[in-house]
Amino acid sequence: MTNDKLRLEDVQAQLGQQLRQLRLRHNLTQRDLAGRAGVAWNVVKRLEAGKGATVESLVKVLRALGHVDWLNTLAPAVSISPLQIAAARTKAPRQRARQQGRRRV
Questions:
Q1: What pTM, to 2 d.p., does this model score?
Q2: What is 3-74's CATH number, 2.60.40.3140, 1.10.260.40, 3.40.225.10, 1.10.260.30?
């Protein structure tokens, strides 16, 4: 199954398993990690169980584990391809996005 076909629950479960493994590698209990991250114990418990939490809580937990760099894989830097650069030189810059579903004739 490709990643774009995964259900939200599956993605959350995978993330939770990875967080748990990382916590255990650091030899921390859930309560220890919660204390270091400045979040409630049940936040760590829910994250590891794949039940979700706020983005703020996730960032705090990743920071406490020394893995904020994981967030870079979620939102890599946007780059422009050479073809886009060449096309931009020949056209006026876009002023707005076109609505989806409408075709110009």
A1: 0.65
A2: 1.10.260.40
